[in-house]
Amino acid sequence: MGYRPGDSYTALFTTTVAGGAAGNADSLPTVVANHNGTDDSTFTAALTVANLDAGRYSVTGTVPAGYAGGDTVTIVAVAVIGGVTVKLPVSRDILDRLPVFTKNKAVTFGFYLPLSSDHVSPGTLKTVTAKRVLDGGAYSAVSGSVTEISNGYYAFAAAAADTNCTSGVWEFAATGCDTQRFPFATEP
Questions:
Q1: d(CA 68, CA 97)
Q2: CATH number at residue 74
Q3: Which residue of 48, 61, 146, 152 lies most exposed, with the fewest beta carbons within 10 A?
């Protein structure tokens, strides 16, 4: 599954020095975010670059909520290596479209729950708290239940009440894991 508007964004990129060995840039690289072919200075300013180890960097931030499914987001790193400015592709993503469910009908929805320590490893054997927001209302507990499938994958058996809206968000949280939020739409 790709990114959706409002999701946490994480990507890695590397730099090399003369001879092709992994090595740090002369200073911390910057990044440029491009939305549908146009640089987005607001998203760019909201992204954080961190040096993980020799020549390896992370980029983190949040995909702007105003973006839409189907939009293209490209991130490019700008680094100075040995006094030479280089531009390195970090990622190119097409944002996922919202899943559409039948209004007021039970459905089973699968999701992955990564550990917050590295944002990748599976969160296994977790007690997951599930909440919902329906039609812009307040967060409330879901009527359905969450069970672990395996290796960080979980299934949410949404009750009809959990889809009784025009648009909503399901939120899944567990200790030591990144909270996952899934916006959705319904149709009659």
A1: 7
A2: 2.60.40
A3: 48
Q: What is the 3-state secondary structure (H, E, C) of the chain?
A: CCCCCCCEEEEEEECECHHHCECCCCCCCEEEEEECCEECHHHHHHCEEEEEECCEEEEEEECCCCCCCCCEEEEEEEEEECCEEEEEEEEEEECCCCCEEECCCCEEEEEECEECCCCCCECCCCCCEEEEEECCCCCEECCCEEEEEECCEEEEEECHHHHCCCEEEEEEECCCECCEEEEEEEEC
Query: Does one domain contain both 63 and 119?
Result: no
- 140: domain CATH number is 2.60.40.10
Residues 74, 112, single domain; the answer is no
Position 124 in a domain: yes
Give domain status of residue 3, yes or no: no
Two tokens, residue 26: 């002369």
pLDDT tens figures, 64-122: 988 888 889 999 999 999 999 999 999 988 887 767 789 999 999 999 999 999 888 99
Q: pTM of whole model > 0.85?
A: no
